[in-house]
Predict the structure.
Amino acid sequence: MIWKIFLFLLLAFVSVAGISFPIVENPTKWYEFPLIPGLEENAKIIFFHVPTAWLTVIAFLMSTLYSFKYLRKKNLDDDLKSYASAQLGMIFCILATITGSVWAKFAWGSFWNWDPRETSIFALLLIYGAWFALRSSIESEEKRATLSAVYSMIAFVTVPFFIFIMPRIMTGLHPGSADDSNAGPVVNFKMNGNMLLIFFLSLIGFTILYFWMWRIGYKSILLKDKLDKKLIRG
Amino acid sequence: MNSKSYSLFLKDLKSELRTRYAINALAMFIIVAISVIMFSVGQEKISPGLTGGLFWVVIFFTAMSGLSRAFVSEEERGTTLALQLVASPTTVFSGKLIFNIILVFAMNTVIAVLYSALFNEFIIRNFLLFLTSFVFGNIGLAISSTIIAAIIAKAGAKGTLYPVLSFPILLPLILASVQLTLFAIDGISFESAKFELAIVVSYDVIMLTASYMLFDFIWKE
Amino acid sequence: MINYSLEAQQLNKSFGRRLIFNDLNFKFDKPGVFGISGPNGSGKSTLVKIIAGIISASKGKVIHLLNGKALAEENLHNHIGFVSPYLVLYEEFSTLENLKIFADVRGTEFNKDRVDYLLNKFLLFKRKDDLLKTYSSGMKQRVKFIFALMHFPQLLVLDEPTSNLDEEGKSSVYEIVKEEAKTNIVIIASNERNDLELCNEIVLLEKYKN
């Protein structure tokens, strides 16, 4: 219970601070953020955009990991964990896409530019969209678990190719891209202490939130399964 | 092991020649896809670069129309069990893969010939580069579409899911192949296309390894 | 003398969270006919599929020994013959073509004498060049027996062997079962009284429900 209150306070603080702390040219007070040329007020979305993108990766990675575990042990609980995590991954993936698009509109002038990272998240949406479509088409639990686990393994091995081929085809706009010369990694150089603090607090808060939601999601699917069986058996 | 997979391939070939299910679908799809592009282009002048991209659009959709047959036909007719009773998973996958590789090569050669005859803008300046990327691209396409076909067949979902599942898996291969085709059209040297060629070749190798490792799980319920 | 033995150790199978059977143990180590019986849905077909290595058990294992040595899973199919109503052969090929294909894919020699003998035994010799799709279901069932027996298997697994067969077909099946049982292990999964009367030993599946 205590950690739930802690999580609530943490995320409440991050949300309020992230949105309301003013951005000034020369920060003097503890709550002031520095002005980053080219980003200005837009910079604040970093507290929400980066954590969602980060959690997309974590959630899908966990899902793949549990798919792998299912193939080795054939325990249906692992499949449910994988499924619950992929559901969250999908939610965060959509959130990251939306927050990213909004940011892109104000920073680069249009909602979508096919920058390598935008393309990556699009590929993730495609892969997991297909994954959910595959799952919903199979009745038998075991078959569904096995086939979807195999599919996520195959999708997983294609990921390195995306990483290698994309920078060759499209130019990067995100900071930290290979050909990024103007902005530089924002996190390392342009943020001051309090901005970094809130950024990492946000990352930690969202990560805890993810693990909590994962547990609840997994348990609720398990309960739903059991309830369905009881209803059928009467 | 090789002769067993080869026998399975011969069986599929013979069966295909009798029923002509995949061949008919593929042939019609090539015609449909190319004519749709021709109608939509009309009298417009299109850039050589665009023809290179559209070339792979035709290949992708044609592949999606016929390559799932390899496994779906066994599952549909209920002959999967008979196959399980006479062959190991490795033999089955190899046999089906040989069949799909032959089918992909036949289909893509027809597409390439028709395409270059019908689109004047589609001129390959570095033919050797085009041929190399064509060969490795086809192999990759065959490998991925065979393993996805196995999943589709067991899922009982048949046609509709096939392109949905295949597209993300084939996307890196298609992106690299489109790029290589553009290089070949521009007449860029082999040397400067090395990176993309390496990607396509390693895609083939990694997909082949992953497919053999994962096929057991699909095949044995 | 070839010595084949089959042993199931603490076999358990469940589909999803539904248990089919649990803690099933048996050992067949001499030639003879062995039966598997149980009401519909008790898992007869599931068990024979596990024995034949087509599906895997949830827990426990089946051990096949040939002359005291355990058989590798990928070679198992060369020692097993399998017949069941849900087995389907290639309809676009004739009986002879089917048998040739299966011999090639299996990697075993196509033994013409054996096939001719079996074709005669199951009264199919005259129609061996007709496509399977022109056959009646009883004739297809008889082709499956030839398919199962052509490579001299040491283990013959028969799931409801006499379904779809007329009296004549049934008696050929019983004859061949008796003949095979002299040297090999024959497993029959069935509820037919006549089928089960052939068996030396019967596993009753309803006893392994919990």
Remarks:
- The CA atoms of residues 118 and 146 of chain C lie 6 Å apart.
- The two ends of chain C are 39 Å apart (CA to CA).
